[in-house]
Amino acid sequence: MGNKHEIAIKIGGEAGFGIKTAGLSLARTLFNKGFGVFGYSEYPSLIRGGHNTYQINVANRKIMSATVNIDILVALNQETIELHAAELGKNSVIIHDGLKIKRDVKNIDIPLMELASKTGNELARNTVSLGAVAYLIGFEESAMNEELTEKFGTKGKKVLNMNKEAVRLGYNFIKNNYSSLISHYSLLSGKTKISGDKKVEEYKEASANTHLMTANEAVADGMIQAGCKLYSAYPMTPATSIMHILAAKQREYNLVVHQAEDEISAIGVALGAATTGVRSATGTSGGGFALMTENLGLAAMTETPVVIINSQRPAPATGLPTWTEQGDLQFMIRAAHGEFPRIVIAPGDAQEAYYMVQDGFNLAEKFQVPVIFLMDKIISESDFSLYDIETNKIQIKRKGFIDDNELERIENYKRYELTSTGISRRAVPCQVNGTHIINSDEHDEYGFSTERSEMRTKMVDKRFKKVKLMETEIPEPIMYGDVNADLTIVGWGSVKGAVIDAIEEYKNIKIREYKKKSVNFLHIVYLWPFQSKRVKAVLSGARNILLVENNKTGQLGELIRQETGIEIKNKFLKYDGRPFFREEIINKIEAFK
Amino acid sequence: MDTPNQKFNTAVSPTWCPGCGNYGIWQALKTALFELRLETHQVFISYDIGCFGNGCNFTKTYAFHSLHGRALPPAAGAKLGNKNLTVLALSGDGGAYGEGIQHLIHSARYNIDVAYLVANNQRFSLTAGQASPTTRANAKTPTTPFGEIKQPINSLLLSLMSGTTFLARGFAGDQKHLAEIIKQAIEHKGFAHIDILQPCVTFNKENSYEWYKNVIYKLEEHKYNPSDRKKAIEKTQEFELENKMPIGVIYKEDRKTYEEQIPQLEEESLCYQKLDKINSLQK
């Protein structure tokens, strides 16, 4: 068989077995060796007990999605075998420690517990299993050393050596007993690190600008890069790790992370800080966002820039806290009472999250509107391979402030001055001659409350005037693939990874040429204000359209119909809490007539 | 700018009912700011929605007219954003002790350096006189036509138990005394909460200026020591137990403020920090 272009490894067991820890160590090792990696975890809303998995798709090209099929299943308990048997193919192998294997499937019975005990730590069986996997995929025994040093180096030599020993024992056990299997799973061919793929040049050795990171990690770093100085939030899965990361980095980067008493206060604090000129943000999931909505309207009415992150999970109510869904799109576009402009951005992966959140801060400040940054669990918590990341790609553009000298010359400063663009300049507290009311009530140009009919109309129009300029500044949807295609897939946010990987893989499927369809993908990232013209132009020229969304009602489809009049009849919708897996999209493309 | 009114009045005249307790509180507030020699641009006031909150239009400072019950979070945010600001939050009893009571409890716990002035007239007055969390039992209002059956909240005791480091009660009918308390509250480093007794001449005929004058007395006339926490607890319960309402500073302690304990704020306020040369994504 030789080397494969891609393999999928899943580690499964009970929460508390160190599933994520082991999986991430392996993912990092693979990534640092120059492979494209996608790491996907599934876990219940529990701390102890319950079934956890971490799946690594690794390839000699960039990949951004998980597959249904698993090549190597590391089962740390019986449940893992029961739950994931259907994901195994005829060449798949299970690595386990004396478990019952019902099917006629290749398996490696390795005494993980016994070997772990030899290191003096029974809990290290997850690490022993990593040694076994390292051998199977054709790595040298020392392959994991760098990662182990990174992870355990600070915990003392004893701990580090114990973990290295655990890897060695697992590695040698396979080497001595199952060496014939290596040819099936090796990612390597001879001494060549990466081979057989035209996109190899994109993949480099680990360097300063490549990263394996989740979109939550990327968005946290993007916020730092954007000059966000205040993040005020309340914990809610799957947005919480953004707060963890920023809290850990706050002293290094001189920003303040405030854990508020609830989401209402979280956004209120962000708005208060924003009025002093500080770039401020808050983050939550749908339920917390629901609590923030009155303040979302306050941000709009007072024209206070703020970035609000919503990482979606299956809803309504508590829903499925640790799973994924794209159910909040229409809510984001309409949330809060009344009518006002806002910007909604939904990145499709960690790289987009890093750049676009920076753009989000610039847009919020320029237009003095709330910017909603819409993610979901699958991108918030999956590990993406990022290449060629430039920290200075998106420049901080400070806009919309009035300087001290000018303010002192002005007779009567108008915070809400009626201008041709709808944008008026902000004076911030402590600026002499700039006092005004940042007013929740409808107000006049100075900020004083007013109920006069003509001023009310003027102020609503003022706020909406900004939309015209927004539409010209907001990037257009991205088209992946040839413009002329038999099938155009349309989607937003996190479906990007599975769709792009599926299209790529479909191209390589061996079927008769005349049966082969060309497929492209329209990914709408800046969802509001809606890019009606561009979307209409693309879709009205499309031969066949397939809408792919991780929700029940096809919310982007509704939006497209509302904004362009185009109704997409073919919909591939999924709302079981799971993301789209690559094969599901491929099957859909194949079946499409 | 020789008087509090010249310095802190805007061009808009108050819209409160004649005889409203808000006039006294407003005057005391302006006097306090004036006597502390604060400039209009150095002061940030976050306002509740309600009769008292409408004062944002009449008072010349940087103002944030927020949402009902939500005056405290933006006040905290402004202080975190610019620590040089003198930050106050103004609320009515409905917003402070009903809708947004969690913000009182937690701001006290954080000990953020904000002075919280609560105008307490025992009614939701801007919505025309409904019972509020401080309405006395049996009071008849549009929402309690047969008499209020709930117990009123003891906001002072709650505040004290939550960690407020400066706790006081004032009376809208004694501007001079109230101005002194407001001054102390502003000067206090940490969370300062003043519950201000305030008649609503339109919707609360029972708790009039006369009614209050019969139950209140000034703590400082009784050699009271506000650093004694046990005594403070007693004072916050005096009305329930003895039908007396002490006014003045009930409790005061020195505790590090929230923002003082954040090293990122030591040198420069967030709003003045330079945004160039940021290098994220460091491994």
UniProtKB/TrEMBL annotation, chain A:
Keywords (A to Z) from UniProt: Oxidoreductase
UniProt domain Pyruvate flavodoxin/ferredoxin oxidoreductase pyrimidine binding: residue ranges: 222-460
Pfam families the record matches: POR, POR_N
UniProt keyword Aminoacyl-tRNA synthetase present: no
SUPFAM superfamilies cross-referenced by the UniProt entry: Pyruvate-ferredoxin oxidoreductase, PFOR, domain III, Thiamin diphosphate-binding fold (THDP-binding), TK C-terminal domain-like
GO BP terms: response to oxidative stress
CDD domains in alphabetical order: TPP_PYR_PFOR_IOR-alpha_like (cd07034)
Residues covered by the Pyruvate/ketoisovalerate oxidoreductase catalytic domain: 16-172
Gene Ontology MF annotations: oxidoreductase activity, acting on the aldehyde or oxo group of donors
InterPro entries for the chain: 2-oxoacid/accept_OxRdtase_asu, Pyruvate:ferred/Flavod_OxRd, Pyrv/ketoisovalerate_OxRed_cat, Pyrv_Fd/Flavodoxin_OxRdtase_N, Pyrv_flavodox_OxRed_cen, THDP-binding, Transketo_C/PFOR_II
PANTHER family cross-referenced by the UniProt entry: 2-OXOGLUTARATE OXIDOREDUCTASE SUBUNIT KORA, PYRUVATE-FLAVODOXIN OXIDOREDUCTASE-RELATED
Protein name: 2-oxoacid:ferredoxin oxidoreductase subunit alpha
Species assigned in the record: Candidatus Kuenenbacteria bacterium CG1_02_38_13
UniProtKB/TrEMBL annotation, chain B:
Every Thiamine pyrophosphate enzyme TPP-binding domain range: 60-196
Family matches, as InterPro entries: 2-oxoacid:Fd_oxidoreductase, OFOB, PFO_beta_C, THDP-binding, TPP_enzyme_TPP-bd
Keyword Oxidoreductase among record annotations: yes
GO biological process: cellular respiration
Domain Pyruvate ferredoxin oxidoreductase beta subunit C-terminal: start-end pairs: 200-266
GO MF annotation list: iron-sulfur cluster binding; metal ion binding; oxidoreductase activity, acting on the aldehyde or oxo group of donors, iron-sulfur protein as acceptor; thiamine pyrophosphate binding
Cofactor: [4Fe-4S] cluster; Mg(2+); thiamine diphosphate
Protein's recorded name: 2-oxoacid ferredoxin oxidoreductase
Organism: Candidatus Kuenenbacteria bacterium CG1_02_38_13
